[in-house]
Amino acid sequence: MRENDATPKSEQAIARTLTALAFDSAGLVPAIAQQHDSGEVLMMAWMNLEAVELTLRTGQVCYFSRSRNALWRKGESSEQTQRLVDFRIDCDGDTILLLVDQQGVACHTGRRNCFFNAVRDDDLEIIAEVEIDPKDLYGK
Amino acid sequence: MRENDATPKSEQAIARTLTALAFDSAGLVPAIAQQHDSGEVLMMAWMNLEAVELTLRTGQVCYFSRSRNALWRKGESSEQTQRLVDFRIDCDGDTILLLVDQQGVACHTGRRNCFFNAVRDDDLEIIAEVEIDPKDLYGK
């Protein structure tokens, strides 16, 4: 996987990126976070313009929380941060792929990634273990 | 990556899956397609209830096209189909991760995946080659 380690980005690159993105009617665009070396898909969340800007400027991933209606600096409560390794935009400009280096676990349930419910023969099955007790992530 | 090769799914598994999904106000849920063996993130598109059902029932990925407002059987025009290898749902039930076996290219531009625009020093850069001329995909 080809990567770029030069973060934070220049103002020019940030401006170009913001222009290329097609934010939806709510001003948001979905962002997929993938662990840069293993290829594991960690989570999907949303970014607004400010979250994109902050992520590119700081090199630390920041989303927009639709439930809290506020910027969500990933790891601000849990310390499970995501360092940006590469920032990619799809063909239509309406989805972001973030290659990241995940500190600890991405999921609020304490699992490494959020996609732990798998369709099996007659049911959904949980296929990943809790690695960190959520109480230890958010109980502080 | 742990996988399941038993497709199509049982009616019971399909019913459980549909119940577990949190469709948005438009009746849609985003679905990320990932190549099952390489880990490459291929694309993101949307599914409605019927698309989920068809995908699980047939083992061939079907999305919902927001621009055409219709079911989009991936590959119906281009022959670049996606065979379902595993169907996963995230912690909140509002995002799907499809592990697939992509026939040919996933992107309508003729590139293997849609995420070929990468933020580089002062600009966005195209980091993937066109593998199949779009005229050959859709010109028939």
Strand order of the largest sheet of chain A: 2-1-6-5
Unreliable residue runs of chain A: none
Task: Name the structural class of chain A.
Answer: alpha+beta
> Assembly state here?
homodimer
SSE sequence of chain A, one letter per element: HEEHEEEEEEH
Q: Percent of residues of chain A in beta strands?
A: 25-35%
Biggest chain pair interface: A-B, 46 and 46 residues
Q: Please give the largest β-sheet of chain A.
A: 4 strands, mixed
Could you give the count of β-strands of chain A? 8
Helix content bin of chain A: 10-25%
Tell me what the structure shows.
The structure is a homodimer of 140-residue chains. Chain A is α+β, with helices and mostly antiparallel strands and 140 residues long. In chain A, 18% of the residues lie in helices and 31% in strands. The first copy, chain A, has three helices and eight strands. Chain A has helices spanning 11-20, 49-58, 134-138, and strands at residues 29-35, 41-47, 62-65, 70-73, 82-89, 96-102, 117-119, 124-126. In chain A, the strands form three sheets. A four-stranded mixed sheet of chain A has the order 2-1-6-5, covered by helices on one side. Chain A has a two-stranded antiparallel ribbon with strand order 3-4. In chain A, strands 7-8 form a two-stranded antiparallel ribbon. In chain A, a hairpin with a 4-residue loop joins strand 7 (117-119) and strand 8. The radius of gyration of chain A is 16 Å and the shape is globular. Chains A and B meet through helix 1, strand 1, strand 2, strand 5 and strand 7 of A and helix 1, strand 1, strand 2, strand 5 and strand 7 of B.
